[in-house]
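input
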Amino acid sequence: MKKLYTLFIACLLPFSLSAEENHRIDYKLSPGAEIVSSNFLDTGNLKEGAILISLENGGSISKVVSRQGEALKTRPASMEEAFESLDASYKGELKPGDLKKAEYFYKGLSLDGSKGEGKEFNLKLDNVVLYDYDGNPATTDDRIAVDGGMNFLLGLDWNIKIDGNSISELNFANKIDQKSVFDVLLSTPIRIPLPFKKEFKLMEYEFAPVIVGPVVFTPIVTVSAGFDVGVAGKVKVNINQKLSGRYGTRYAYGSWSGISETNEKSFKGFLTFMGADGWLKGYAGPKIKLDFYNTAGPYVEGFGYLKSKAALVSFKPPVMNWGLYGGLEANAGVSVKIFSFGMKDFKKTIATYEHLIVSGTFGGDAPREIAVPALEFDEESVGPLRRELISGFGPGR
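output
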């Protein structure tokens, strides 16, 4: 059974804006809307239709739908209902020192430097068993285990504009700088149904709420790893990759589009190859989402991955064609309930790329380890990639 390992970093108040963070705020509340606190006392003046905005404990927006004496009945309300006009933006970095809580979903995970002043998150994995087919720790030939680490930097950039109680612009982008070095050990005996495909949520970071004027948001970061296995046998893969880019979503006057800027990526590694034809894909990376007023909002995730493919083309003598690929994928979306009841949720794969790193043919003896040199991509490769990834977005969704 999967266990939950929880570390409470601190119970923090909303953290203040530092010199590395900046914001803009200009707003006008809707008629009947007001900002209230926990010690707010209803004097009987609230009428049906009143909007209550709380900035405490992650914030909330609610609308009074009925009143019977002193009893109020409310429902969740949107920012469009609360603000006649709003021009709000925030730009800053997430740091380990701003963590409120961290949850680890597997034994062997830890975060180095969580109480320091640095900007980099250093996630360590010490023989983390992500999957055990029979649940028996004494048998090791039916599991997926990971050793290694991931380092990443995260930057936020969002803005919201409301005019006449209607969302006119909504932008959210996340800057991701990620480095991963993993040794993935997979044992997939015949009794495990293949192909096997599963994503594992490794941990979740919750930050202290941030208050920008009357706007409250809470950053939440999850780190996941996923595997797609189509081969039986023991496989060892080393994933060594870098990914740097800016990804997100943009809404302007009724149309959604994607934000995708890939600045740097590189892939290298090795694998102890499988003894039969099949494939193996492994990926890992962070996902960041913002909860506005304790309601899910925009999110973006970026993953670098390594994939191997092999095809047995001859049995006597055994000959196998193989290839090792590096790639990236970025996804973004928005749950729009807090922004407008009339808008539709948006989700889109905004970046996808795969490149053959090295390939070859084995024959005769059993396959041996494949060493793969680093492969860097320059602007000549990245430029056309940016143009390709930005296309394909139309109105509405």
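quick obs: The CA atoms of residues 69 and 284 lie 55 Å apart.
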